[in-house]
Every structure is written in structure tokens, then in C-alpha cells.
Amino acid sequence: xxxxxxxxxxxxxxxxxxxxxxxxxxxxxxxxxxxxxxxxxxxxxxxxxxxxxxxxxxxxxxxxxxxxxxxxxxxxxxxxxxxxxxxxxxxxxxxxxxxxxxxxxxxxxxxxxxxxxxxxxxxxxxxxxxxxxxxxxxxxxxxxxxxxxxxxxxxxxxxxxxxxxxxxxxxxxxxxxxxxxxxxxxxxxxxxxxxxxxxxxxxxxxxxxxxxxxxxxx
Length: 218
Prior knowledge:
Blueprint: H1 5-13, E1 21-24, E2 43-46, E3 50-53, E4 76-82, H2 85-93, E5 99-103, E6 106-108, E7 113-114, H3 129-135, E8 139-142, E9 154-155, E10 170-172, E11 176-181, E12 184-190, H4 196-201, E13 207-208, E14 214-215
Parallel strand pairs: 1-2, 1-5, 5-8, 6-9, 8-10, 12-13, 12-14
Antiparallel strand pairs: 2-3, 3-4, 6-7, 10-11, 11-12
């Protein structure tokens, strides 16, 4: 059974370690803050100038002045700090973020990522995505394995305008956990009830399968 967006975020939360500084991108990555273990200390950063971001607020408890980079209302943990964009991007460009979690429209087997523009559609700009992929050394992508037409989004080469080149290390989709090694997708885990054959069929890029592939655990 394919994972929901919440389950993708829950699996990625297992990659977050104690004392990490983590940047959460727009979309599925914002959900990760809801699933981090209670026994570890993590600082979530949003590029619009927040360090110490908490989980989403409960309905009726939203503060319209407290938002993330995707303009969603959020909460702030005790000790959170607020600062301008220059300080925020100084943290990113200075490589003070331990883990970056991003959404993507396409990822290539070379580790390239396309997540900011679809040709012919109006967009305001790339935003902070380019800075994040250029500066981060540890990037995990949260995405759907295929598009609405069932076509693979894990490709030999991206067809959409690139955000970054050779920067993605690990991908968690609704079907699998994969790692990019030597220009190929390596299958690490599969979603509960999803077969290796289904993942192979849904992956256009070169997929390496070694040994028994275990189901994800949350």
C-alpha cells in the first residue's frame, strides 16, 4: 500500500538526529516536525527567518502572524528566535544546517533535482531552493514516486528546469526509500505491501536492488 504524505514525513522524521539543525521545505517536508521523537532536541529552521519552529497548530489556535516559508501557520517552541532573511540565508550559505528536507517534482539518478518551475506556468521565482541545494551537504527529498498520469518522477535525467546538480543523497517516496550512489538509485526499503517489482516499474532511472528489501518501519 502506497504511503500517505503524512507517512512519508513520519519515515523521514527517523532520519532526524539529536541536536540537528533542520531546514524544512514547502509541502510534505513541513509535516516532518509533527513526527520527530520527543526524546531528542531538534531545531527546525524556516528560510523566512525562524529557528525553533514547532508542529502545526491545532484548529482555532493559529496565529496569522506566525508562518513558514510556504505561508502556512506554524507554532514556535520555547526559546525560538526570529530574524531577517539575510541572517537566515547566512545560516544556509554558511552550512550551519545539518539536514535539508525538500519536495521535488523530479529527481535524476545523478542526484539532480527539479523542484521550482514547470515551463509555461507562472511562478514568482526560485525562492530559497537554489541556496539550499547549493549549500546543503545532507539533502533528503520527500516526493511522490509517480505523477498523476502514473509516469515516473525518478528519472535518468530530469526534464524540468534544474534547481541543483548532484546534490540529492536520499529520497523517500510513497513507495520506497532510495539512496543515490554512483549515479544510480539504490533501493533501501519498500512501503508496506508494495513489492520490489512495483517499485521497479515505477522507476524510470537505473534501480539497483541488492538482497531482500525490508518494509519500512515507523
